[in-house]
Amino acid sequence: ITEVDPLKYDLLFERFLNIERITMPDIDTDFPDDKRDDVIKYVEEKYGKKNVSQIVTFGTFGSKMALRDMGRVLNVPGYILDDLIRKIGDKSLNEALNNTDVKNLINSDNKVRKLYQIASRIEGLPRHSSIHAAGIIMANSLNDYVPLVFNDDNYVCAYEAKYLESLGLLKMDFLGLGRLGYMSSPAAILKQRIPWRN
Q1: In degrees rounded to 5, what are phi and psi of residue 185?
Q2: Which end of the chain is more exposed for a tag (fewer CB within 10 A), N or C?
Q3: Consecutive 10-residue runs of the chain (198 residues): their mean pLDDT?
Q4: Burial 102-132 (b: 16+ CB within 10 A, else e)
Q5: Distance from CA of residue 182 to its chain's centroid?
Q6: Angle in degrees, CA 81, 82, 87, rounded to 5
Q7: Are 183 and 189 a contacting pair, CB within 8 Å?
Q8: From CA 169, how far away is CA 192, in angstroms rounded?
């Protein structure tokens, strides 16, 4: 992976050597952010499109989103929702029940009480799916290990990253870093070296 000798330069890769680590390490590789898609395309061409996959992630209902979504379904007026959400603040819906103002608002209206009950049940459940910011998995016949979904000309593994290791798969992170693109630009390098003055 690298020609740098970690022992010679005292670079102890603790993530790999730590005996308390019980999970496999993932492999992180940095690329300029404008080249990341090119790298993914390259590995798809080299190993086969069905052997390379990005990874799904699931966003969950937070307290505010659960209230907003259920409020729309139940036609709860926006000003009541705004008031309730403001009183809850950053707490979970169960924690917010300790707040007297929240309790009074819930008990003031049957529709608000029903809203709160339903929102409390869905809080923390998956709300939507998206794609892991950097995660990639590769394997021969990947669809023998995981279900694949075709999305925007790429395959996406339908299991979250935390389940992949138990299936014998190792996650790689292809990280797109803006700074790398900036540093490799000749104009940017010149700008750093030459102090511009009026």
Answers
A1: -85, 125
A2: C
A3: 70 63 77 88 92 93 95 93 92 92 91 94 93 91 91 89 88 83 59 51
A4: beebbeeeeebeebbebbbebbeeeeeeeeb
A5: 25
A6: 100
A7: yes
A8: 42
Match 């707490």 to its residue by tokens. 91
Beta strands in 89-162 (DSSP E): 126-138, 148-151, 154-157
Question: pTM of the full predicted structure?
Answer: 0.69
Residue 116, token pair as written in the block:
């709160």
Distance CA 97, CA 117 (A): 11
* Type of residue found at 154: N
Buried b or exposed e, range 140-166, using 16+ CB within 10 angstroms: eebeebbebeeeeebbbbebebeebee
Q: Which amino acid is at 27?
A: I
